[in-house]
Design goal:
With 154 residues, the protein is mainly alpha-helical. It has ten helices and no strands. Helix 1 crosses helix 7.
Length: 154
């Protein structure tokens, strides 16, 4: 389970690296799409590489285990790696949940755009993911309210 946690934390580190050295206008164009696949296409077109490739290379330099490298590199295309599909698939689903939340999109609709086999591969289903995401959002809002409405943030 720690590998999934680490993979989830590091899966977009390639974006952080790209933020350090790329023109702001290009990054805005790439990030504005709200569509992970379109974003990857724009990265590849304008730069010749993607944040997934940059993140995987960083993980290799750090000598992280292969399953974490694969989850980072293939989190937008989990079936492109035959050995670590489950790891990449779980990060793909988590990334989809975050993307839908960030862009205020319907989580159920966004999850339905994923390949159906991804859910059987990971043992998850859309209803369960939606339920957990809603509960997590409610908990986050409650913690936020407790921290910032009681004067603790001052």
């Amino acid at each position: 389970t720690e590998c999934f946690f680490v993979s989830g934390l590091l899966h977009d580190d390639g974006r952080l690296i790209m933020l350090q050295g790329l023109p702001e206008t290009l990054l805005r164009a790439i990030n504005r799409t709200g569509d992970s696949d379109k974003s990857l296409e724009l990265e590849k077109y304008h730069l010749g590489f993607t944040h997934t490739e940059v993140g995987a290379e960083l993980a290799r330099q750090w000598r992280l285990p292969d399953h974490i490298i694969a989850a980072i590199e293939y989190h937008h295309e989990p079936f492109a790696n035959h050995q670590f599909q489950r790891e990449a698939g779980l990060v793909c689903i988590a990334n989809t949940v975050v993307t839908a939340t960030e862009h205020q999109q319907s989580l159920e609709q966004k999850l339905q755009t994923l390949q159906p086999h991804l859910f059987s591969l990971t043992g998850l289903d859309i209803q369960h993911i939606s339920k957990v995401a809603k509960a997590a959002t409610a908990h986050f809002k409650e913690v936020y309210r407790l921290l910032f409405s009681s004067g603790l943030a001052a």
